[in-house]
What does this fold into?
Amino acid sequence: MRGALGWIIRYGLAVAIIVAALFPLAWLAVAGFKAKTEVAATPFQFFPEVWRWDNYAQLLADEAFVRALGVTFAGAALFAVLSLVVNALGAYAFARLEFAFKRTIWAIVITTMFIPGIAIMLTSFIVVTELGMLDSMAVLVVPGAASAVQVFFLRQFFLAVPTALEEAAQLDGAGPWRIFRHIFIPLSKGAFVVVGATSFLLFWNSYVWPVLTVTDPELFPIQQYLATFRSERTSEQGLLMAGSTLAALPVIILFLIFQRHIIRGVRLSGLK
Amino acid sequence: MAVTSLRAARVERRAGVRARPRRESRAAFTMLAPLLVLLAVFVIWPLIHAVYISFFTWSFYDPAVFVGLENYINVVTDEEFVNSVVRGLLFSAMVVPVQVTIAFVFANLVKTVSRRMAAVMKVTIYVPAVISEVIAAIVFALIYTHRGGLLNWFLDFFGIEAIPWLGDTATALPAVAIPAIWIGMGVASLIMLAGLLDIPEAYYECASLDGAGPWTKMFRITLPLMKNVILFLLVTGFAASLQFLILPWLMTQGGPVNSTNLPNLFILQHFNTDLYVGYSIAAALLLFGVLGAVSAVIFRLVRSEKAMDA
It folds into this structure.
């Protein structure tokens, strides 16, 4: 498509896609500025009568809300670190080391990728119940840390590292641990950012597992807090919208900081 | 001097190679231990246990009784289950083609707009992908609000009467499909873009020299070479869309009259209401066993050499 018409169509479509992606979030944030009665007022109001920070201020002063954000933040950070350690070590072993039953173990690990959560939800619940993990940070952080998808991704990355570097180190008598620490970790920052950020997001956005395993409101992660708020305090829509906006902000900021890495990671996760 | 040291290095290296396996094997299993233990305890054992339970009438309170395939038979003959699967397929049919089309349009646009616009598009398309389903449910339910909602306000300009989007059996499922598309379009678009950028520019240049127009290029170069990427997106999109749970749970609780009771939600609600979980587990295993097997096969076909060459 050449010429002015083609230009208009291309840029029109491009803007339409951008608006479609961002508008719902903008709408959420605007609704957070509205007074109780304005959020779903008839007749409809596009913008609030008065832009008020009340909802946002009230939430940030609300102990339960701030605690939910804190719990989620701490849990997501722990989860990111734990899954990074677990999956990177495993991926390195598969990418670079020789050991017995390697193919079989690899096949088993890869197979776990295709087990949908709902099929093992109840039996996982039984496991964590028997381990006495209910209503703890551990139940939120530990069970999901090992991820075949991440092992797969990191292994691909490690396989692409030239072997010349470690051969030199091997001549100097370095073992697998030292090679991993001094050669692979420094080379893998980009891949680690992708894996860490993905885990952080996954934890931040998780809802079903916390609902099953956490009943103590003091341990509610933010999504559970929002969903509970929504069903219990139906008249406070403005607050809910402000809370949702505040809950979405950290991950949007995280994404914007690491967007270069994350976008590259997503593209690599396709067919390459 | 140089020759001897080189030979010494070679001998050392050979010795090193021989000494390596045992040391390596020990290191390997130490490194694998956390991964394998976590997978065994929280994924593999629960799966084995689930398969086992699915052959029993089992509850938290009574001793289990072996019933063979009874649970599975109950599942496949349960009209409600079959309906939820059909509904799930319908939902996928609403989500996946739209998502893949958006991704395709997106990828082709990014290639032709200015560099700065392309950069903005790549970032913004992915923003919805980082938003939780809970928040997506909240904001879309707000937009769909029957009286005082944004969508009905907008449609009012075209003289369209207010529609109870989530309250009408005819509109509820598509209304839940839209946030599903919104959440998933970022990943699909970026993967599609990567596939498109992989096509060598030279192909298009040659085609231009031969006088090919944009449509010829699209149908003779782009589409054939993108076949695998599109197939990959269709399959992964299908698997993902069939598993949406939080959106219908929070937006409609499966209603009205079950019109948004997607398979995962059906199973979850069964867990909640049915004391004997054998049925629910059999339903989950049956549905996703088939689905998992299908995606594993496709995965193997499409990227076999990478996945299985350990």
About this structure: Chain A touches chain B through 103 residues (CB under 8 Å).
